[in-house]
Design brief:
Protein name: Fungal-type protein kinase domain-containing protein
Strand content: 5-15%
Structural class: mainly alpha
Number of strands: 7
Pfam families: Pkinase_fungal
Strand order of the largest sheet: 1-3-4
Shape: globular
Length: 328
């Protein structure tokens, strides 16, 4: 049953045909459940604030399907407890294969990168689309902590670092590209090293403070953190080598964005190829330096209230200052 109705889903790939040679396995339909006597308020379909409402006039099929078989077989990044296994999962996640097929995922997050044994997979393609697709729509990505900064701002940010003649001014609409998927992978790696400690219940005070700056629950502050070098002193000693790898990845993402946005629309093919190679090497390095290290989640809470317009204006000015200094 789904939303109080019989779920007749027989395929987990809505509106897409399987590639030639692939075998499909239809799912059995739900059995009709007999109604039971209900009292006041019983038997009604509950509404959960975590489930997004269907976007009005959106052309994207927003489907909430509770029958995801992979959830019963695979573990998400959230569920893994060995640091080397987490980085191996990020390394093995087939994001590069998706990009080689000219598709972008657009919702890469810690729930959608999963593992079972020695196998890692990329899950949940509800928002995936072809790179050359001209369709636009309102993308309501739920995982703000892993969203690419440009995707959140719905604007190209790195073209501010490129000086163009006045004649080269453009009116290019923003479109999601594969570099944004790669940035989401990087945010996951950041979350792994800064949101965890070696021993349960014993986080470093400086680590907690820096964690709030990295994942404040608001886009503007995340973008400022993205442009700033990482604080290795805020990490547990055994996490520092992984931190070096993550910092190297950050610098290469910035370089890929700056290179791709020298022209509009962004020419990301060559920077993307280089970035895939860098990510593979750095994640493999993180795996090698983190073997046998178990990690525990920090008991950290953050303030999610929205900032005032004055705060937002000052943060925007600070962001532009950081971007200009980084370009120099």
């Amino acid at each position: 049953m789904a939303n109080g109705k019989i779920d007749s889903t027989d395929s987990l790939l809505p509106e897409f045909d399987l590639p030639a040679g692939c075998t499909s396995y239809p799912l059995p339909a739900d059995e009709v459940q007999k109604p039971k006597p209900t009292g006041t308020g019983e038997g009604l379909t509950p509404t959960f604030p975590s489930v997004p409402r269907r976007t009005k006039h959106s052309k994207v099929p927003h489907r909430t399907d509770p029958r995801l078989v992979s959830r019963d077989v695979f573990q998400s990044i959230y569920d893994l407890r060995n640091l080397d296994t987490v980085f191996a999962t990020l390394e093995d996640a087939p994001v590069d294969f998706l990009h080689d097929a000219d598709w972008v995922h657009r919702d890469v997050n810690a729930c959608n990168v999963v593992r079972s044994g020695k196998m890692a997979k990329l899950d949940d393609f509800d928002y995936a689309k072809r790179m050359d697709s001209k369709t636009t729509h309102e993308l309501q990505q739920l995982t703000l902590d892993f969203m690419a900064c440009e995707a959140g701002a719905h604007n190209y940010l790195f073209e501010l670092l490129v000086c163009r003649p006045y004649a080269d001014e453009h009116d290019c609409p923003f479109r999601f590209n594969p570099l944004h998927d790669m940035e989401s992978v990087w945010w996951m790696a950041m979350w792994v090293v800064y949101y965890h400690a070696v021993q349960a219940g014993e986080p470093l005070s400086e680590q907690l403070e820096y964690l709030h700056k990295l994942f404040p629950g608001r886009l503007g502050e995340r973008t400022i953190a993205f442009f700033a070098a990482l604080k290795f002193e805020a990490l547990p000693t055994s996490f520092v080598h992984a931190g070096y790898a993550v910092e190297y990845m950050r610098r290469e993402i910035l370089a890929a964005y700056a290179e791709s946005e020298k022209k509009m629309p962004p020419a990301y093919a060559n920077p993307l190829k280089q970035l895939h190679s860098v990510f593979t090497d750095q994640l493999a390095s993180a795996v090698a330096h983190c073997r046998g290290i178990s990690h525990f989640s920090l008991s950290a809470k953050r303030q999610l209230e929205d900032s005032t317009s004055e705060d937002r204006d000052s943060k925007q000015a600070k962001l532009q200052e950081v971007m200009r200094s980084d370009a120099q």
